[in-house]
Design brief:
The complex is a heterodimer.
Chain A lengths: L8 E4 L5 E6 L11 E6 L6 E4 L13 E6 L2 E6 L8 E8 L4 E3 L3 E5 L1
Parallel strand pairs in A: 1-9
Antiparallel strand pairs in A: 2-6, 3-4, 3-7, 5-6, 7-8, 7-9
Chain B lengths: L2 E5 L3 E2 L5 E8 L7 E7 L6 E7 L4 E3 L7 E6 L4 E6 L8 E8 L3 E4 L3 E5 L2
Parallel strand pairs in B: 2-11
Antiparallel strand pairs in B: 1-3, 3-8, 4-5, 4-9, 5-6, 7-8, 9-10, 9-11
């Protein structure tokens, strides 16, 4: 199975918004509303930020939002803060297994 | 609060079987699904497989022939066995609860494959 496609890196200034894309196929992202997003600071375990495309777990700031159009899912972070600097991974159900994206390094300038 | 803790050998010889256990507290392995993920140093996350509350399993197509997942409800643990390991299997291995996303993760355990 192929990993979902994410940009390798994105950067933006504090207070601004940034969107990270996650492109798959009709067999994964496009076929199911089971896309989740994870934040991973260096040396730490990933943390769930969004599940089922748009749902935010308790405790995740509403600055984080998810969406999907066709075979591409997106994570948008508004009002960027220094603490948001981390690697971000998308993950999608693909029928009988899960597949992750390659990861995006977010730099807050 | 749900907590997960991976345990097992940190060093495995090539061609042997990697065995890890995840101990769960704050929830029952008889509920939900339970997942293994790994991450080679400096690389991205790779989904290995999951086991549904004591029952069916789903495996990564690329690892399917080498994986066995199981659950021990008496110890509230679930386990991973990966056979015929090579250096490419060296990674940090994580266990996680799979319900409304992977909301709870273990801290991860480094497994090195080397003679």
């Amino acid at each position: 199975q192929s990993a979902l496609t994410q940009p390798r890196s994105v950067s933006e200034s504090p207070g601004q918004s940034v969107t990270i894309s996650c492109t798959g196929t009709s067999g994964d992202v496009g076929g199911y509303n089971y896309v989740s997003w994870y934040q991973q600071p260096p040396g730490k375990a990933p943390k769930l930020m969004i599940y089922d495309v748009t749902h935010r777990p308790s405790g995740v700031p509403d600055r984080f939002s998810g969406s999907k159009s066709g075979n591409t899912a997106s994570l948008t972070i508004s009002g960027l803060q220094a603490e948001d600097e981390a690697d971000y991974y998308c993950c999608s159900y693909a029928g009988s297994f899960l597949v992750f994206g390659g990861g995006t390094k977010l730099t807050v300038l | 609060q749900v907590q997960l803790q991976e345990s097992g050998p940190g060093l495995v010889k090539p061609s042997e079987t990697l065995s890890l256990t995840c101990t769960v507290s704050g929830d029952s392995v008889s509920s939900h699904a339970w997942t293994w993920i790994r991450q080679p140093a400096g690389k991205g996350l790779e989904w290995i497989g999951r086991i549904y509350n004591s029952g069916p399993t789903q495996y990564s197509p690329s690892l399917k022939s080498r994986i066995t997942l199981s659950v021990d409800t008496s110890k509230n643990q679930f386990s991973l066995k990966l056979s015929s390991v090579t250096a490419a299997d060296t990674a940090v291995y994580y266990c996680a609860r799979d319900y409304n996303g992977l909301a709870f993760w273990g801290q991860g355990t480094l497994v090195t494959v080397s003679s």
